[in-house]
Specification:
The chain is α/β, with parallel strands linked by helices. Helices cover 45% and strands 14% of the residues. It has a single domain (26-269), classed as 3-Layer(aba) Sandwich (Rossmann fold). It has 9 helices and 7 strands; from the N terminus they run H-E-H-E-H-E-H-E-H-E-H-E-H-H-H-E. A 7-stranded parallel β-sheet has the order 3-2-1-4-5-6-7, sandwiched between helices. Helix 2 crosses helix 9 and helix 5 (130-158) runs parallel beside helix 6 (179-199). It binds nicotinamide-adenine-dinucleotide (NAD).
Length: 276
């Protein structure tokens, strides 16, 4: 039966529901790598990217959670490939990028999200062990650089791409007993700015997201204490903890052409934590 098109704009007059959903997908046809997408913020971003039409490569060190995210995306009708990857390993990063290019032929978005926060081992500088420093830097900073090193050559000939680096308020301000993590996150902002300057002329945008306190496995131990949990929620003007979904919208924006003129930006999503 013909649909009534009396009050609809021309291009919507013959739309099925599927057509309407297709039209609103903001990342249709794109290929996105999300590191650390097995849990927390990375998983939230990967699932949202998939709903927006992107094919997702989950570069995750934990095979169980990595495959679980991929499965969830496929069950929801999306496209996802899990590639077991420790982002601190050059060989594994290279293999993951090669696999992505073989399978999808292009890379449009790199979302660098995988990081470690070694809470129990963190300490003031003079008490920090070399092992904690080295492991934190290897994943949180070297990992971001290694993925960039192998993804950018895929983006250059396309003359397009978006790199999103996950930073942290600890990279901007001093927090006690978080020496290695804070330094790595400050380094991420430096890496982001250097890359933004180098690749903007190639039409590859590089930006950073700064989440506030987000309810994820990274903070599970801290937030298990109800008093600490309430305190973390209270210090943000929004008076609540963030969720991985809170980060997904800005990530979609930065991955899409809507952010075409966003270069070297720092986008806080923190309920006002760093504004006051
Ligand atoms: N949760 C917060 O409050 C918060 C605040 C500011 C910034 N961030 C940043 O946001 C990002 C995501 O944090 P989250 O809270 O979702 O973390 P999370 O610990 O909950 O999840 C991180 C994921 O990364 C994976 N991972 C860890 N090491 C890896 C490696 N070497 N290679 C590949 N994958 C690895 C983990 O297995 C896990 O699935 C991180 O960069 C973090 O520093 C988080």
């Amino acid at each position: 039966m013909a649909k009534s098109n009396k009050f609809l704009p021309l291009n919507m007059a013959t739309d099925t529901q599927d057509d309407a959903e297709q039209r609103t997908m903001r990342l249709q046809g794109k290929v996105a790598i999300v590191t650390g997408a097995g849990a927390g913020i990375g998983r939230g971003i990967a699932e949202r990217f998939a709903r927006e039409g992107a094919a997702i490569v989950i570069a995750e060190v934990d095979p169980t959670s990595g495959e679980s995210t991929a499965q969830a995306i496929r069950t929801a009708g999306g496209e996802a490939l899990f590639v077991a990857t420790d982002v601190s390993s050059e060989a594994q990063v290279k293999a993951m990028v090669d696999k992505t290019r073989e399978r999808y032929g292009r890379i449009d978005v790199l979302c660098n999200n995988a990081a470690v926060l070694l809470f129990r081992e963190e300490a003031p500088a003079h008490e920090l062990t070399n092992e904690t420093w080295d492991r934190t830097m290897a994943v949180n900073l070297r990992g971001y650089w290694l993925t960039s090193k192998y993804v950018i050559p895929a983006m250059l000939p396309q003359h397009s791409g978006s790199v999103i680096h996950g930073a942290s308020p600890t990279g901007l301000f001093g927090f006690t007993r978080l020496t290695a993590y804070s330094t790595s996150k400050g380094g991420v902002i430096g890496l982001m700015r250097a890359m933004a300057a180098d690749y903007a002329p190639e039409h590859i945008r590089v930006n950073a997201i700064i989440p506030g306190t987000i309810d994820t496995p990274m903070n599970a131990v801290e937030l298990a204490d109800p008093v600490a949990r309430a305190r973390y929620a209270e210090i943000a003007p929004a008076r609540r903890l963030g969720t991985p979904e809170d980060l997904a919208g800005i990530a979609v924006f930065l991955a899409s052409e809507d952010s075409d003129y966003c270069v070297g930006g720092i986008f806080t999503v923190d309920g006002g934590l760093t504004a006051v």
